[in-house]
Amino acid sequence: MSGRALEGVKVVECATMVSGPYCGKLLGDMGADVIKIEPSGGDPARCDGPFLDGITDPERSPLFLYNNTSKRGVTLDPGMPKDAEVLTRLLGQADVFIENHPPGFLETLGFGWDAVHRLNPGLVYVSITPYGRTGPRSLAKGDELTITHAGGVGFVLPTRSTNIDRAPVKMGGYQAGYHGGLAAALAVIALLLGRRNGREGHLIDISLQEVLLALVGPYTAQARYHETTWHRVPDRPPGTGRMETSDGYIVPGAADDHHFRAFRRIMGNPPWAASDEWDDMEWRTNHLMDIAPYIEAWMKTQKKKEVYHRIAQAGIPVGPINTAEEVMNSEQYAARGYFIPVEHPLAGTHLYAGWPYKMTASLPSVRRPAPLIGQHNGEVLGTDPAWAAKQDSPFSGRPDKSDPSSPPLKGLRIIDFCWVVAGPYACSLLAGLGAEVIRVESHNRTDLLRRSVVWPLPEPSPIRVPLNQGLPFNYANRNKMSVTLDLGRPEGLELAKRLVAMSDAVVDNMRPGALIKMGLGYEALCRIKPGLVVAASSSRGHAGPEKDYLGFANIHQSIGGLAYLTGYPDDHPCVGTPADADIMNAMGLAFAVLAALFHRMRTGEGQFIDYSQCEGCSALIG
Question: What average pLDDT does this structure show over 579-588?
Fold first, then answer.
């Protein structure tokens, strides 16, 4: 059995530009029936260019076309009695309502949370605003620039800046909107799962400022408790990271000891890095800038594509800073079928960014292109049998057995075979929503964040933190239980299998094939627990010519095209912080896991999720 994960879920979207529409797109592409409400002049995003012929056309805006796939579109003015009656009917039959208007705006029209909750007690109401619905700044306006800086991300951009007199920048594109939409979609599907026991509807209050603050959460925690400095001009900037080649830029990430040993070999074991002391992370962190000029000089003699593959094939995390053209022409993306053709009646057929998650049972799809203005008025504003048939909802007829104060994922158990940030934080999000998460670790190779070196500090040299005291690790692993198992020994493997047999989902972000070698691949896990959801998050995904290449957050931004869009126009391209793309990909991975669990709730069918973190970054360019 297969199908669309959110089939039968009814969504009304009354939102503009990016955050709300992107949330609706994610749900629609997963199979929900999304009705988009626009004013007669259309969503303002319809006027956002560039336009191919230079003439503004509301039916040909790339931003609107991308963020509004898989929706039906109608025009309504909720301030007019007749249109308000139609919206009331739609909301009375809906499962989800998405809006991103200023707090109080819909209340004046009779469609605020309290009124809609009385109308439809089971509805999930999503409100996305710059600063949230409460607090001293709840009514303040906000845009991409101001929210980026209010969320703390702008303070570190552009990374590795050399001139403090130049103003900080925002991330390229509409990143506050996209991240906010992704966070909202994750919360929606968690609450939809919470309704499996008849749980009542909820208000989801998304603050874009807080969404962006989460992107730098590991570093705000470290600055608070380890007294590190935190700035776009660091006291002791890394000697690797963004580096210039003879014809472009790459981002090597030789952070771990064995990675740096391999990097030295690629450079020909130069005498200026010959000492065994370079094998120690703490010593290396303190002295890397002493040899940075030599590394940079060597790198400028290399060709971007050639040195990228040499470093990657040596097992070192690395990625090129891709231009837009290079992203579109990526051999890895082509092998995975990432870009998909979408035919629009007026804009024509173009390639759109797809989804970073490949799902074996409920693959997302573009079921229809973005709607024309008022395209479905006749279909929706009349009697729509699909919406009138309330029994089609996956929630109808379910008795109210739940405690309304309990978290939505209570009763689900997740096994976490992850490390560093992207995988662990995805599982931490699921734990925060009520799932029981059991993290499996090994003493043979402790998590890189457990072995982290706190830096830069006011002290003259870095400090290696004790195993349980690194704030980035603790931030990414909240609300979990932990066990240590030696999966190389039969008894350790047997214990892992016993945990899997009692669980609903397994998540890992190891190198592709690592769990298969241990006897814990998808097929083996399904024999242990039929109906299991298994999610594997990796740098480039589990297929394609670069599937074995490794990467970290800023590398994924570089490959995915986000770094190319960020920075001063007359300076280097700019990668983000060491974790912001990890936090974003964690949200995307958690969303895919919950969609698969929702599909299993409806059908009993489990599935495998293949998540590419590079593609996760490209999806946010639009």
Answer: 93
